[in-house]
Design goal:
The chain is of the alpha/beta class. It has helices at 63-69, 73-79, 83-99, 109-122, 137-144, 154-160, 171-188, 194-220; strands at 15-23, 33-42, 47-54, 104-105, 134-135. The two termini are 26 Å apart.
């Protein structure tokens, strides 16, 4: 869990650093990154500065994953770059934003941030232990509009907030839409401090995981189902000791891994 006592007025934030991954699957410790987009989304929704990567993940891309994001083994092997080099570049770009005080924004952030750190360790690179204040529209929306009916996918959430999302499951399209949804949510929240909102998301994410865990245990008749409620970085199998609550690495439905877009 990451918390902070620093103060940054949400009203003073000029831009958001948006981050999205498309991957070979939803296991943050075993699957690999296929595409990535990092960019800045301004308050007016415009994009100012962007980076994108297509990787050769080094393992087969399952047909199911290819059907979602459109990247096949053939494309990845032909056009994808070396993953170690790409991961190092992603870490550099994100660290620059963190050092500049720009919040990192990702939809279901615990998936993308945990996946990136797992890849960093895989290639002997230093993971990012503190992403600074993170904004996760998936967590925030469920907290501030708890009883709204319907799906909470990025597609559904973007539509609800009047954000156009064309080309869902493309890392750039998803990241930019996420940033625009984040601005809409920041206008609705009663929190005025960025770090305070980050800390509230830690609690919200845990509550949401507990609720989903209770639902799954009851609906499936399995009291051994455990949801990892750590946010914005999952505890994971090799980091379980750091977060003693809801950390057993049991794979569950995609809603708490990478939500369908």
């Amino acid at each position: 869990m990451q918390t902070s006592t620093a103060k940054t007025a949400i009203a003073d934030i000029p831009s958001l650093c948006v981050f999205d991954l498309e991957t070979t699957g939803v296991n943050t410790d075993e699957d690999r990154i296929v595409t990535c987009f990092i960019g800045r989304v301004m308050r007016d929704g415009t994009v100012n500065g962007s980076y994108s990567w297509l990787l050769n993940p080094g393992i087969p891309i399952p047909e199911g994953a290819s059907a979602i994001h459109g990247i096949t083994d053939e494309v990845a092997q032909r056009d994808g770059v070396d993953p170690a080099t790409a991961i190092a570049e992603m870490l550099t770009v994100l660290r620059r934003s963190i050092e500049g005080g720009r919040p990192i924004v990702a939809y279901n952030a615990s998936f993308d941030l945990s996946m990136l750190n797992a890849e960093a360790r895989r290639y002997g690179l230093a993971p990012i232990e503190d992403f600074g204040p993170v904004l996760d529209p998936y967590v925030i929306d469920k907290a501030i509009d708890r009883y709204r009916k319907g799906k909470r996918t990025l597609v559904a959430t973007a539509e609800y907030y009047g954000v156009l999302l064309e080309g869902a499951h493309d890392a750039e399209a998803d990241a930019v839409a996420t940033g625009r949804v984040a601005w809409a949510l920041l206008a609705k929240t009663d929190e005025t401090d960025l770090h305070g909102l980050h800390d509230r998301q830690v609690g919200w994410a845990l509550e949401q995981a507990q609720s989903f865990q209770t639902y799954l245990r009851k609906s499936k008749g399995d009291d051994l189902i455990v949801i990892d409620g750590a946010w914005p970085i999952r505890a994971g199998a090799d980091r379980a000791a750091a977060v003693p609550v809801l950390v057993a690495p049991v794979l569950v439905a995609p809603v708490l891994t990478t939500p369908p877009v």
